[in-house]
Write a structure and sequence with these properties.
Layout (H helix, E strand, L loop, with lengths): L3 H12 L2 E3 L2 H9 L2 E4 L1 H5 L5 E7 L5 H12 L5 H12 L8 E6 L3 E6 L2 E6 L1 H7 L15 E7 L2 E9 L6 H10 L4 E5 L4 H7 L7 E3 L4 H12 L4 E5 L5 H6 L2 E5 L5 H6 L2 E3 L7 H15 L1
Parallel strand pairs: 2-9, 2-11, 9-10, 11-12, 12-13
Antiparallel strand pairs: 1-13, 3-8, 4-5, 5-6, 6-7, 7-8
Helix pairs in contact: 1-12, 2-12, 4-5
The structure holds adenosine-5'-diphosphate and magnesium ion.
The site of magnesium ion has 8 residues, from helix 3.
Length: 289
């Protein structure tokens, strides 16, 4: 039978918006020593602002936003949704994308107004149009940059500002007080962005440019040194969440696939819920043992 203290812990955690899927994950949560955090949508709030546009072809700024947003309607990625919001704010009326193929965490390809369009990270877009990645054209190297290609040609970059959630430094300090000795970032985004966004957080390591499979490898490598918790929001995080001792999904606005793969779902859209979650788990385990 499951000790009463654990059951009570589950229900107390739920009051804080932390849905723990059973006594086993609750116990595991109390023993975590390493934390791996996703960036976009987890450490950042995933509601980035479109701050500038680099024109690289013969489309205007409005046309760049139009094509990127029209195609990104097909994606649940937080950056994609921010681009759609920016287009609506500019008064754009978006057609529905056709023949859509999404590569989770990298970008989307499809047809807009009968023209082939690719939107996503610079490396992904370059690979789709068989062009070299034009590093030097990325003026704002420390910001999230989304590339757009139309008719097989690179047309522009959308520069997005994606800031840390308020209170992130305090949260990490609190987690360290609870015994989490090692905190890492694992992101599909570029290293320069990851370093700028997390400057001052004193992370133990940053793993950047990761595919979903590489996020799994980071989790498995860290597990050799003890129980690992992985927190993420995206479809690209789901395999890593499943590979961790405790996978935690940002449930309120995250992808359904990540919530399914996770052991713990944060029903409130903020990583600061980890703190009461772990505190409650540690107390429940002390009482139950
Ligand atoms: P993280 O792993 O930190 O959550 P992601 O791997 O989800 O980051 O995203 C990394 C980068 O990939 C984004 O900053 C963006 O440049 C690009 N990207 C991924 N999917 C899309 C999309 N659907 N539309 C536009 N850009 C995308
Ligand atoms: Mg993410």
């Amino acid at each position: 039978a499951v000790p009463v203290a654990l059951v009570a812990g589950l229900s107390r955690a739920a009051h804080f918006g932390v849905l723990i899927k059973g006594a086993k994950p609750l116990e595991a949560l109390a023993r975590i020593r390493t934390l791996i955090l996703d960036k976009t949508g987890t450490l950042t709030d995933g509601r980035p602002q479109l701050v500038s546009i680099n024109i690289l072809g013969d489309l205007s700024e409005d046309e760049i936003v139009y094509f990127a947003a029209a195609l990104d309607q097909a994606s649940k990625h937080p950056i994609a949704q921010a681009i759609v919001a920016a287009a609506h704010a500019r008064g754009a009326v978006l057609p529905l994308p056709e023949h859509v193929v999404e590569t989770p965490g990298e970008g989307v390809a499809g047809m807009i107004d009968g023209r082939p369009v690719v939107v996503g990270g610079a490396a992904f877009v370059a690979s789709q149009i068989a062009a070299a990645e034009p590093q030097r054209n990325i003026r704002d190297a420390g910001s999230v940059v989304v590339a757009l290609a139309v008719d097989g040609k690179l047309m522009g970059h959308l520069v997005m500002a994606d800031a840390l959630r308020a209170g992130t430094a305090d949260l990490l300090a609190g987690l360290r007080r609870l015994g989490i000795g090692r905190i890492l970032l694992a992101t599909g985004d570029r290293r320069a962005v990851a370093e700028r966004v997390t400057a001052g957080l004193r992370l133990d390591a940053i793993r950047a440019d990761l595919t979903p499979d590489q996020k799994v490898l980071v989790v498995l490598t860290e597990r050799k040194n003890g129980p690992v918790m992985m927190v993420g929001d995206g479809v690209n995080d789901a395999p890593a969440l499943a590979a961790a001792d405790v996978g935690v999904a940002m449930g309120a606005r995250g992808a359904a696939a990540s919530a399914e793969a996770a052991d713990v779902v944060l029903l409130v859209d903020h990583v600061d819920r980890l703190l009461p979650g772990i505190e409650i788990a540690q107390r429940a385990r002390r009482i139950a043992l």
